[in-house]
Design a protein that fits this description.
Layout (H helix, E strand, L loop, with lengths): L11 H14 L9 H8 L2 H17 L9 H6 L1 H5 L17
C-alpha cells in the first residue's frame, strides 16, 4: 500500500492507477468494485484471447512437442514471440536473463 510522504508529489504511477480505476474498472462509478467489476478485473476478456494465443505459440514453437519451450525453441522462433500480445510484444522476454 502506498503512503505519501509529506511534501512529496503523488507519483505518476499512482495517478495512472487511480485513473485506470475510475475510467476502466469502476464501471458504475460508485467508488468501489462490486463482484462483477472485480471479476472483470481479475479475469479480463483479454485472458481468453491470451489463452488461444499461448496455444498458438506452443503449437508453432514447441518443435519436439514436449509441452515445454526450451531456450533454443524460443530463440529459433523469436519472431513469433516478439509479435505476440502474450509476451507484451517481446517486452516480457527482456525480463528474463535466460534469454
Amino acid at each position: 500500500m502506498y503512503t505519501q510522504v509529506d511534501g512529496e508529489p503523488e507519483p505518476e504511477w499512482l495517478a495512472e492507477e487511480k485513473n485506470h480505476f475510475v475510467n476502466k474498472l469502476d464501471k458504475n462509478q460508485d467508488g468501489k468494485l462490486d463482484s462483477d467489476e472485480t471479476k472483470a478485473w481479475i479475469l479480463p476478456e483479454d485472458m481468453i484471447n491470451s489463452k488461444g494465443e499461448s496455444q498458438h505459440l506452443m503449437s508453432n514453437a514447441d518443435n519436439n512437442k514436449d509441452q515445454v519451450l526450451s531456450k533454443d525453441e524460443v530463440l529459433e522462433h523469436w519472431e513469433l514471440f516478439v509479435g505476440s500480445r502474450v509476451t507484451g510484444y517481446g517486452e516480457a522476454l527482456q525480463k528474463h536473463d535466460e534469454f
